[in-house]
UniProtKB/TrEMBL annotation:
This is Uracil phosphoribosyltransferase. Allosterically activated by GTP. Binds 1 Mg(2+) ion per subunit. The magnesium is bound as Mg-PRPP. Its cofactor is Mg(2+). Residues 6-208 form the Phosphoribosyltransferase domain. SUPFAM superfamilies: PRTase-like. It comes from the Bacteria. Belongs to the UPRTase family. Pathway: Pyrimidine metabolism; UMP biosynthesis via salvage pathway; UMP from uracil: step 1/1. 5-phospho-alpha-D-ribose 1-diphosphate binds at R79, R104, D131, P132, M133, L134, A135, T136, G137, G138, S139, D200. Pfam families: UPRTase. The lineage of its organism: Bacteria, Bacillati, Bacillota, Clostridia, Peptostreptococcales.
Amino acid sequence: MAKVTVTDHPLIQHKLTIMRDKNTGSKDFRELLTEITMLMGYEVTRDIQLTDIEIETPVVKTTAKVLEGKKLGIVPILRAGLGMVDGLVNLVPAAKVGHLGLYRDPETLKPVEYYCKLPKDIEEREMILVDPMLATGGSAVAAIDVLKANGATNIKLVNLVAAPEGIAEVQKYHNDVDIYVASIDEKLNDHGYIVPGLGDAGDRLFGTK
Ligand code: PRP
Ligand code: URA
C-alpha cells in the first residue's frame, strides 16, 4: 500500500488555518498556498538522490553532495493546482512543468478533461502531481490515469487538504502512488465539499465564483 504522509509542521498548520478562514482574501490565500507548498516540498523531496562532487572551499579541497540531477516533473491539475507550482519550482528550478485541465462536473462530481500538455520524457521523470483539494478523489484518479497512460511510472500526489474518502479512492486505483497532505479533514458533505475544508480552492485563489 502506498504511503500517506501528513506534513503537519506547526508553520503549515498555522498558515492552513488562515487559508481556511472565509475572510482571507485571494492575495493572502495565494501567498500562503505557495509558502505551504514550499514547506511540504521539504518532505516531498526528501528521497531525492544525491551525488558527490569535488569542490574547493576557501580552506581546503573536499568532496560534497549535490543533487544527482534525476529529472523531476510537476503537474498541476488546473485550475487550483496552479497555486502549488511556484512553491515547488522555487525549490527545484530545473523541474519541467506539465499542465492537466480537469474540472469536476457539479452534478455528477465526475472529472472532465479539457487540456493536457506534459513534458515529453515523463517515463524518465519522477512526476509530482499537485492539487490543493482531494475530495472524492475522482480528479486525482483521472489525472494519475493520464500520467500513466503517457508513460509515467514514478508518481507522487501532493494535496493541501484531503478527505478520507479521496485518500481511499486513490489507494483503491493507484496504490503505487505516495500521497502527501497537510491535513486529513473529517468528511465530505452532500455536495462533495471537504468538511471543514476551505471552500472552493480555485475560486478562492483566482477570485471567481
Ligand atoms: C477542485 C479541486 C480538485 C477537485 C477535487 O477542482 O481543485 O481538482 O475539485 O475534487 P474531487 O476529488 O472530488 O475530484 P474543480 O473541479 O473545482 O476545478 P477548478 O480547480 O478549476 O476550480
Ligand atoms: N474542490 C474544492 O475546491 N473544494 C472542496 O472542498 C472539494 C472540491
